[in-house]
């Protein structure tokens, strides 16, 4: 199993008007870089994002389940809150604790306010202001804990997320290639254009 476990860097944190979510795009299989443009941030609902680390098949299965549950809740005119979605995902993971999904997840979103929840493979759940997962997370945390501040603007948050993922890519061999950044606010889920990310990276040179 260790041969096929995936390395990655994902992160999410709360800003003044929403949450910023980031990841690298490298997928590995042992020492092989199996995908240079792997998707690790998923749009679960209008104002919810899920970051994925671990086995790709397990992550994709959980993304499909959560998208379906969010759609059903909207049809019933009882849309999931971020906490409600996190509890549902926690229950799904716990129900499989005997044969667990090999994943580490971060659910981030905005309902009446921004939220970030971190979940482990057997359903452990904790609400955080700042979260990072994957093999590059120790390096990412080093940047986040030194530069993150409560109430920071979304613009500053995008720059910080880019810097944290960039730092992880430079030190973790299992993270790399490109950087994806997403924001979630009361206006919804939005992907930060790659051109913007490239401009931010230039400012660090």
Automatic annotation (TrEMBL):
One GO cellular component, as annotated: cytoplasm
Primary enzyme class: hydrolase
Subcellular location: Cytoplasm
GO molecular function annotations of the record: threonine-type endopeptidase activity
Enzyme Commission code(s) on record: 3.4.25.1
Active site: 8
Inhibition and activation profile: The formation of the proteasomal ATPase PAN-20S proteasome complex, via the docking of the C-termini of PAN into the intersubunit pockets in the alpha-rings, triggers opening of the gate for substrate entry. Interconversion between the open-gate and close-gate conformations leads to a dynamic regulation of the 20S proteasome proteolysis activity.
HAMAP family (alphabetical): Proteasome_B_A (MF_02113_A)
Subunit details: The 20S proteasome core is composed of 14 alpha and 14 beta subunits that assemble into four stacked heptameric rings, resulting in a barrel-shaped structure. The two inner rings, each composed of seven catalytic beta subunits, are sandwiched by two outer rings, each composed of seven alpha subunits. The catalytic chamber with the active sites is on the inside of the barrel. Has a gated structure, the ends of the cylinder being occluded by the N-termini of the alpha-subunits. Is capped at one or both ends by the proteasome regulatory ATPase, PAN.
Cited function: Component of the proteasome core, a large protease complex with broad specificity involved in protein degradation.
NCBIfam families on file: arc_protsome_B (TIGR03634)
The name this protein goes by in its record: Proteasome subunit beta
Source organism of this protein record: Candidatus Undinarchaeum marinum
UniProt lineage: Archaea, Candidatus Undinarchaeota, Candidatus Undinarchaeia, Candidatus Undinarchaeales, Candidatus Undinarchaeaceae
The gene coding this protein: psmB
